[in-house]
Specification:
mainly alpha
Length: 82
Amino acid sequence: MSKFPDSQTSIPVIFRTNFRDAASYFAAVKFLLTDKDVIYVSNSMSYELFKFLTLLNNTSQTMVALPQNIKAAGSAIKSLNQ
């Protein structure tokens, strides 16, 4: 685990399965989910990358806009108090 920070005690793992195969479904139901686990479901191999990149883009745009939104809300509250 030398490539991870010393404080990290686990290694991220990605599992891929095809739920069109019944055996995959029965194997997947045995996985235990914990807090902050992410489940990503795609129904088309050709569209999968696009959907994943769209998800990342939307998440990053939200994180970029958050400080600006907090500043705008603070300004609005100040103007209401005057």
